[in-house]
Specification:
The complex is a heterodimer of chains A (about 130) and B (about 280).
Chain A lengths: L1 E4 L6 H14 L12 H8 L3 H13 L3 E3 L5 E3 L2 H22 L4 H18 L6
Antiparallel strand pairs in A: 2-3
Helix pairs in contact in A: 1-3, 2-3
Chain B lengths: L14 H13 L7 H35 L12 H37 L3 E4 L6 H4 L2 H24 L3 H29 L7 H18 L3 H10 L7 H37 L1
Helix pairs in contact in B: 1-2, 2-3, 2-7, 2-8, 3-6, 5-6, 5-9, 6-7, 6-8
The chains are: A mainly alpha (about 130), B mainly alpha (about 280).
Chain lengths: ~130, ~280
């Protein structure tokens, strides 16, 4: 399900992009799933076609979806690769933490701070 | 009649319509959806269905009148006379009127939906839009297609192998089938493409159920079963008309079986979800 909250300070295209990205990352939308057309989704959500188009474009640039001409937009396998990259980065980070003898709680706080900083840079979706 | 204001600045809704919406939601186990969101949409649908039924009944009566107006026809008379040509022109105009009328009724329902959607501060939709397979179901879609195709084949064969009154009846039947088929296609297209009106998971489910009910209502081939009665059955129960009767009875039995199967499946799904 996608929800657009008009009262939210987060722009509608970002709400849409973030929700679709989350659903792709948590596999609610499986690889190969065909997404609704831009016009259809714009009509359903009461948004401008350009707004939905921008969200799709950003998802495409992030490698989460791919557009196959007139066939439409599909969830790409890149989402799985992204998950694997994150796992590899976590292993590397854990190695660094262990090598410098950092406390686990402190290591987690550093990750938390980094994630919070990242989310602040990119507004979070509405609930 | 007294009126009750809808929360969040929506349009006023009659208490009777609100009660109908409450009952509709309760029957589907949707207790968290505010009835005002649905009341206007359900009212519009009820009125549109009533108007569509009247429109189709008038069309059937008019088709019967068109057929009767060009009688008697001699069995050996294969050519269409001036009177019958004019009768067919009138029928074609009537068919166009029916298609236009059904389309306008659906447009009105969609406009009511859009107005309801415009009042929502939040808009919810499916990440992946349910397609016709989910909304209408393959068995009903197949029944609809087979019913129209079989009726058209029966009429076309009658047109080529029979003569006189039977041939004229087949022309009337074909024109009627084309018109009602076009009207059904327009209505189904509206059902599958109209925007979702929902603001959370429960109202999204209500919208989906409404869409399913709309599609099933439109996909009932009742007019295809009624059209032969207008003209085909005036010659008594010969083998050809017996064929028509068998076709109609078989398709009605198929509809009953599909409805019973869907009912059992819905019940099983309900049991499965409540057991979880």
């Amino acid at each position: 399900m996608i929800v657009i909250d008009s009262a939210s300070p987060v722009p509608p295209f970002e709400q849409l992009r973030a929700q679709l990205a989350r659903q792709i990352q948590d596999r609610t939308l499986a690889v190969g799933t065909r997404l609704p057309t831009i016009r259809r989704l714009a009509a359903d959500l009461g948004l401008a076609v350009n707004t939905v188009g921008r969200a799709y474009r950003e998802l495409e640039e992030a490698g989460l979806i791919e557009t196959r001409g007139h066939a439409g937009s599909f969830v790409s396998a890149a989402g799985e690769e992204g998950r694997e990259r994150a796992r590899r980065a976590a292993v590397e980070y854990a190695t660094v933490v262990a090598s410098i003898g950092l406390d686990t709680n402190e290591a987690l706080r550093i990750v938390q701070a980094a994630l919070t900083k990242g989310i602040a840079a990119s507004p979070s979706p509405s609930p | 009649m007294s009126e009750e204001a809808v929360p969040e600045g929506g349009s006023p809704v009659r208490p009777a319509h609100l009660e109908i919406a409450r009952l509709w939601l309760a029957a589907r186990g949707l207790t968290d959806v505010p009835p005002p969101l649905l009341a206007a949409r359900l009212t519009a649908r009820r009125r549109a269905r009533l108007a569509a039924s009247v429109l189709l009944a008038v069309f059937l009566c008019a088709a019967a009148l068109v057929y009767v107006s060009a009688l008697p026809i001699r069995p050996a008379d294969d050519e269409l006379g001036t009177q019958r040509r004019w009768a067919l022109v009138v029928l074609t105009v009537l068919v166009a009127g029916v298609v236009l009328g059904l389309s306008l009724l659906d447009r009105w329902v969609r406009r009511v939906d859009q107005q309801a959607g415009a009042e929502l501060p939040r808009r919810a939709t499916h990440s992946v839009r349910p397609g016709w397979r989910t909304v209408l179901g393959v068995p009903r879609a197949a029944l609809l297609a087979i019913t129209y195709a079989a009726a058209a084949v029966l009429a076309l064969v009658a047109l080529t192998v029979r003569d006189g009154a039977a041939k004229y009846a087949a022309v009337i039947l074909l024109i009627g089938l084309c018109g009602v088929g076009a009207g059904t296609a327009v209505q189904l297209r509206h059902v599958f493409t109209h925007p979702v009106v929902a603001d959370d998971e429960d109202s999204l489910k209500a919208d989906f159920l409404m869409r399913v009910e709309d599609a099933r209502e439109v996909a009932l081939p009742t007019v295809v079963w009624s059209l032969p009665i207008v003209s085909v059955f005036d010659t008594g129960l010969d083998p050809w008309n017996t064929g028509w009767l068998v076709f109609m009875i078989l398709s009605i039995i198929a509809l009953l079986l599909i409805t019973a199967w869907e009912g059992r499946r819905a019940l099983a799904a309900q049991h499965a979800s409540s057991a979880r």
